[in-house]
Write a structure and sequence with these properties.
The chain has about 270 residues and is of the alpha/beta class. It has eleven helices and 15 strands. It has helices at about 1-10, 45-55, 75, 95-100, 120, 140-150, 165-170, 185-195, 210-215, 230-240, 245-265, and strands spanning about 20, 30-35, 40, 65, 80, 85-90, 110, 125, 130, 155-160, 170-175, 180, 200, 215-220, 225. The strands form five sheets. It has a three-stranded mixed beta sheet with strand order 1-15-14, sandwiched between helices. It has a three-stranded mixed beta sheet with strand order 2-3-4, with helices on both faces. Strand 14 and strand 15 (about 225) form a beta hairpin. Helix 1 (about 1-10) runs antiparallel to helix 11 (about 245-265). It is globular, with a radius of gyration of 19 Å. The relative contact order is 0.16.
Length: about 270
């Protein structure tokens, strides 16, 4: 209804990244993975942690409990975008089958034989491009191209961020913007921005922590960060990922549709 859409508008007029905690840890990026088509949350966390994700994104995408070889570090061990999900060879067959059963049919799940098995630490990606660890296997690079980008060969780049090879740990970017390690130079930021074709800014999460990937998960319209994240850090996250604008655009469309429905009902 039009009224309920207005209520949502008022609720989200101050839209921002949500702060949450996983069993007293602010490293929410270690225990969750968020894309535009699914969200994975570690098994075993408090129901509160799961509920935060379910309430914010559950109406739009599935929120799935997951584990990898019995561990909870799904955000560090898995990497994916709206098209696919890459899992390490340490994942058990039942865990892999659970993911395949739970994810949307359009999402390809692929097990990767890779020495650098914490895939979330060595791969950073959005729906169009990926940054990868300079020493990742050539075969893994080809799998990334096939599974995440439909076989395109111009979308995977070997690089470092502020001298760090763990690109997934020190950067987080969407189709809208990106946040990188605070020591990344302006020149590096510009290079990354040109590669990714989105604006990039250097910053921190969790009160000065430079491990962006560990403290933040974000897609094109929602973000979750650790409880220790300061209001200044939140403001940077909201700005670079344009979260308030994304929410407003989505709600404008909903409101327009509701008004059209109301007019149609009245005229009939």
């Amino acid at each position: 209804s039009t009224q309920s859409t207005w209520d949502k508008w008022n609720k989200h007029s101050e839209a921002m990244a949500l702060r949450c905690v996983y069993e007293n840890s602010s490293d929410v990026g270690c225990f969750s993975l968020l894309t535009n088509s699914y969200c994975l949350v570690s098994l075993g966390g408090s129901q509160n942690f799961y509920s935060v994700f379910e309430a914010e994104v559950g109406q739009h995408i599935p929120v799935i409990h997951a584990s990898v070889n019995g561990t909870r570090l799904v955000g560090r061990l898995l990497a994916g975008n709206k098209n696919g999900l890459l899992v390490p060879n340490t994942i058990t067959d039942p865990e892999l089958q659970h993911l395949k059963n739970s994810l949307p049919d359009s999402v390809i799940v692929h097990r990767v034989e890779e020495r650098l098995s914490a895939l979330g630490n060595v791969i950073a990606c959005n729906d169009h491009v990926a940054l990868i660890h300079p020493q990742l296997d050539r075969e893994t690079e080809e799998i990334i191209q096939d599974v995440l980008f439909g076989g395109r060969d111009d979308c995977v780049f070997r690089t470092t961020v502020a001298g760090n090879s763990l690109v997934g740990s020190y950067t987080k970017f969407t189709n809208v913007g990106g946040l990188v390690h605070p020591s990344t130079t302006l020149e590096e930021q510009q290079e990354l921005s040109n590669l990714l074709q989105v604006p990039i800014v250097a910053g921190t999460v969790n009160r000065g922590c430079d491990m962006i990937g560990a403290g933040l998960v974000v897609n094109d319209w929602a973000a979750f960060c650790g409880l220790d994240t300061t209001s200044t850090e939140l403001a940077v996250i909201d700005s670079i990922f344009r979260l308030d604008q994304q929410q407003a655009a989505g709600l404008t469309n909903q409101l327009r549709d509701s008004l059209i429905d109301s007019v149609a009902l009245t005229s009939s």
